[in-house]
């Protein structure tokens, strides 16, 4: 070993022959050797580091769970790639060092052993079955524990990840639709498949793993490569090592708060697993039931692993030949342009036929049973002939090839030997060409329709921006709670933009009585609803496109406004409302609710009235007697609304936290009228936890 | 409407044709369904008969395609594009409504008010 020899010397004396030799060798090396390879890897590492930094920033910045999971996945992939590149760089540097010292001359000499050709390996249709307890799967009760999973596939230096899939107990298998193609794989490849999962309801907390990783990496590079190289040569000014030495500075993987993926299962696939159809492979599972990221895996994985060695897809050799078939036709030589590809030698009349895709004149099979040998020197010509024997059925058919020069014959023989060698290395992949479907570029990930129950729509995560989430939810609630008797069908959402209708046209009988009395009041409070039909202006659309929060009129213009069903005695309401100027300025709906909730009890009446900017319209469901409105029903609408998202009596379990204190307040609220109660019951009974509902 | 196993179900239905709306990559109809033979029928707030395991409309997105077409909350869906929905699982029902290659769904829905209306208009409408 070089380093051992070197340590025998205390130092390399300056100006010594060895040092000069080394220096000289290094310079020569830097001219001849592929430091371009080095810089390639360095570039890749830099790129991945940039990607990783980007992912970290995104992770720190994003608030949505999905984004965070995606960012964490990219982070994981980038980290793995960086590790792989680093180790490759290290290997290369070590190889360089070895070369520099052991070989004075840069000429490596001809390789004696043959290398098999490379090929493409593709893995697709990954499917990992899960093994839920049947009670979990069928009864569909209880918390829906969700995990985000993805697969990391590594072959050689290439690392790819699949798309992320959210898994819960309604799924029986984890399916990854991606097709991953590795382009330069040798027959002895090892494709490592790793399944990472992350609990989808976890708090974001920084883990300690990245630190260990970082320390390992930095120490390993420092220890092996750095020391060796430093021992090998005096700190040369232009030593390529110094680049590598700088790398560890970038190493420490930042530990970001956010979802962290853990390795759940892994397996390694190799050439023996390659087949043109689906096969099942065993997974090694790490982790146990206690882990948060645990999923009950069945223990196997199905996938289709296909390989296309280059000898099957590319032209290995081509040139002009003369072919004669023994025993068959008269002994005449046919001049052909032959192409060796796959399991055949295609013989075309002319070279142009190859590009023109014309059928070859004839085809000689080259497969495992073919025998090729060089025949004795033909006395007529100076070159040797090549005899190819095949067994077609029971018959042996022999073709004889000859070329114009000895070098050509030699290169053809060489090509045949190489081809046979490749076929013996790639084994079953060379029987027939396996199809590999290239993934269509830029295919947008299909958004799976949300299967979760309404309950999941209602969940407000603590890290989310409360105001926008709540306003979204409230807006949606508003839409659904309308009078059933409303029959207007004009484009409802257009009315959102009609700002000048102060009077409600009152098409339905429910409206007229109410609205006529209210038209005089603050017209700006009814900016759009009046003329609009009663399918309320698409508040839903508003909220989905732009946050409700910025819409100053929205809280006024909600459907209930149009019918005033939600508004209790308008006079009293208005007086109070007009008295609170804060009402009129643009404000986030839910922020109102939140504020009022927080100070709710203190406000008493005043605070409660600020809440009403929440669409009170839970009242609008079903034909409800309007007459039973009282100022307090205003509050009860609040109550109702808040109850609608949870069971009626249990305010503590209310997912809309902002409203819960309201519902539990008995003091300012009167006993809700029977109508409101039935509505409340209706909303409560539509609790998705007890009765599954799906949005279509 | 009550359902007697083995006997044909008769109901007054309304045809509703809903054009699906494209939102990004999805085709949405704008309503939610509940029910199904694998669900608990006692939880259905819209059904008269608490053993009815049919598919009911639980929620309509205001201004959405279903709303525009006249679907109402509480409707029971009897057929979708010719496929029966009175005896299907919840997931099957959802799938029949969300086929990606169909732009329009033609539903047959029934609701109590329809029965009433027919009864009143025909006077002496024979009870099934």
UniProtKB/TrEMBL annotation, chain A:
Name of the protein: Rhotekin
A Pfam family assignment: PH
Domain PH: 314-421
REM-1 domain ranges (all copies): 17-98
Keywords recorded for this protein, A-Z: Coiled coil
Source domain of life: Eukaryota
Keyword Coiled coil: yes
Residue ranges of the region described as Disordered: 513-562, 620-696
Transferase keyword on record: no
The species this protein was found in: Acanthochromis polyacanthus (spiny chromis)
Ranges of biased composition (kind: Low complexity): 541-561, 620-676
Swiss-Prot/TrEMBL GO biological process terms: actomyosin contractile ring assembly; mitotic cytokinesis; septin ring organization; signal transduction
GO cellular component labels: actomyosin contractile ring
PROSITE patterns per UniProt: PH_DOMAIN, REM_1
Organism phylogeny: Eukaryota, Metazoa, Chordata, Craniata, Vertebrata
UniProtKB/TrEMBL annotation, chain B:
Family matches, as Pfam families: PDZ
Listed GO biological process terms: cell-cell adhesion; convergent extension involved in axis elongation; establishment or maintenance of epithelial cell apical/basal polarity; neurotransmitter receptor transport postsynaptic membrane to endosome; neurotransmitter receptor transport, endosome to postsynaptic membrane; receptor clustering; regulation of signal transduction; Wnt signaling pathway
Subcellular location: Cell membrane; Cytoplasm; Nucleus
InterPro entries in UniProt: PDZ (IPR001478), PDZ_sf (IPR036034), Synaptic_Scaffolding_LAP-MAGUK (IPR050614)
Listed SUPFAM superfamilies: PDZ domain-like
Domain PDZ: 15-112
GO molecular function: protein kinase binding
Membrane-topology descriptor: Peripheral membrane protein
Chief place where the protein resides: membrane
Name of this chain's protein: Tax1-binding protein 3
């Amino acid at each position: 070993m070089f380093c051992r020899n070197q340590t025998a010397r205390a130092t390399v004396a300056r100006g010594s022959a060895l040092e000069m030799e080394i220096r000289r060798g290094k310079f020569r090396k830097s001219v001849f050797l592929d430091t371009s390879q080095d810089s390639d890897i360095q570039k890749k590492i830099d790129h991945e580091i940039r990607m990783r930094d980007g992912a970290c920033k995104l992770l720190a910045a994003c608030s949505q769970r999905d984004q965070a999971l995606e960012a964490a996945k990219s982070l994981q992939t980038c980290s793995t790639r960086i590790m792989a590149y680093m180790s490759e760089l290290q290997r290369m540097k070590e190889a360089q060092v070895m070369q520099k010292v052991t070989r004075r001359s840069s000429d490596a000499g001809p390789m004696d052993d043959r290398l098999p050709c490379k090929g493409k390996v593709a893995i697709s249709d990954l499917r990992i079955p899960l093994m839920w307890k049947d009670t979990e799967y069928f009864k569909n009760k209880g918390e829906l524990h969700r995990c985000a999973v993805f697969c990391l596939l590594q072959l050689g230096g290439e690392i790819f990840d699949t798309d992320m899939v959210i898994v819960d107990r309604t799924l029986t298998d984890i399916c990854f639709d991606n097709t991953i193609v590795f382009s330069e794989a040798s027959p002895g490849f090892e494709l490592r498949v790793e399944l990472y999962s992350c609990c989808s309801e976890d708090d974001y907390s920084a883990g300690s793993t990245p630190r260990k990783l970082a320390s390992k990496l930095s120490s390993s590079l420092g220890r092996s490569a750095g020391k060796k190289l430093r021992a090998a040569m005096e700190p040369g000014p232009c030593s390529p090592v110094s680049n590598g030495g700088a790398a560890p500075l970038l190493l420490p993987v930042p530990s970001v708060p956010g979802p962290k993926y853990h390795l759940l299962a892994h397996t390694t696939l190799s050439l023996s697993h390659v087949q043109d159809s689906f096969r099942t492979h065993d997974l090694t599972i790490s982790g146990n039931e206690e882990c948060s990221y645990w999923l009950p895996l069945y223990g196997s994985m199905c996938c289709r692993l296909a390989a296309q060695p280059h000898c099957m897809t590319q032209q290995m050799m081509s040139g002009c030949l003369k072919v004669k078939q023994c025993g068959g036709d008269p002994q005449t030589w046919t001049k052909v342009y032959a192409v060796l590809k796959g399991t055949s030698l295609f013989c075309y009349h002319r070279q142009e036929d190859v590009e023109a895709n014309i059928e070859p004149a004839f085809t000689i099979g080259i497969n495992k049973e073919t025998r090729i040998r060089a025949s004795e020197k033909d006395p007529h010509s100076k070159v040797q002939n090549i005899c190819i024997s095949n067994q077609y059925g029971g018959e042996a058919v022999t073709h004889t090839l000859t070329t114009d020069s000895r070098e050509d014959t030699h290169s053809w023989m060489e090509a045949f030997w190489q081809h046979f060698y490749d076929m013996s290395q790639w084994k079953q992949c060379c029987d027939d060409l396996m199809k590999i479907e290239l993934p269509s570029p830029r295919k947008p990930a299909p958004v799976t329709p949300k299967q979760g129950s309404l309950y999941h729509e209602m969940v407000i995560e603590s890290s989310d921006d409360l105001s926008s989430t709540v306003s979204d939810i409230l807006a949606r609630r508003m839409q659904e709670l309308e009078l059933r008797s409303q029959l207007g069908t004009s484009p409802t959402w257009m009315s959102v933009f009609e700002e000048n209708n102060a009077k409600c046209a009152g098409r339905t009988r429910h409206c007229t009585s109410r609205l006529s009395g209210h038209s005089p009041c603050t017209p700006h409070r009814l900016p759009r609803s009046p003329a609009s039909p009663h399918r309320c202006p698409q508040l839903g659309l508003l909220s989905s496109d732009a946050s409700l929060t910025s819409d100053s009129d929205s809280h006024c213009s909600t459907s209930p406004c149009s019918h005033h069903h939600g508004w209790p005695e308008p006079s009293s309401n208005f007086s109070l409302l007009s008295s609170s100027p804060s009402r009129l300025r643009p404000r986030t709906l839910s922020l109102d609710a939140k504020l009022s909730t927080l100070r709710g009890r203190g406000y008493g009446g005043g605070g409660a009235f600020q809440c009403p900017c929440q669409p009170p319209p839970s009242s609008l469901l079903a034909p409800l007697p309007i007459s039973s409105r009282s100022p307090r029903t205003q509050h009860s609408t609040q109550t109702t609304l808040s109850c609608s998202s949870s069971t009626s009596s249990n305010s503590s379990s209310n997912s809309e936290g902002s409203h819960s204190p309201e519902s539990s307040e008995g003091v300012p609220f009167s006993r809700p009228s029977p109508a409101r109660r039935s509505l409340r019951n209706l909303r409560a009974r539509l609790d998705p936890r007890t009765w599954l509902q799906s949005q279509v | 409407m009550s359902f007697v196993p083995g006997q044909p179900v008769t109901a007054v239905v309304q045809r509703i044709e809903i054009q699906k709306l494209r939102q990004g990559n999805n085709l949405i109809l704008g309503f939610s369904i509940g029910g199904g033979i694998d669900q608990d029928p006692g939880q259905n707030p819209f059904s008269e008969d608490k053993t009815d395991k049919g598919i009911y409309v639980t929620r309509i997105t205001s201004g959405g395609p279903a709303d525009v077409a006249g679907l109402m909350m509480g409707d029971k869906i009897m057929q979708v594009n010719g496929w029966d929905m009175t005896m299907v699982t919840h997931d099957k029902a959802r799938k029949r409504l969300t086929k990606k290659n169909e732009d329009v769904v033609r539903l047959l829905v029934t609701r109590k008010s329809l029965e009433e209306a027919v009864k009143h208009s025909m006077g002496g409408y024979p009870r099934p």
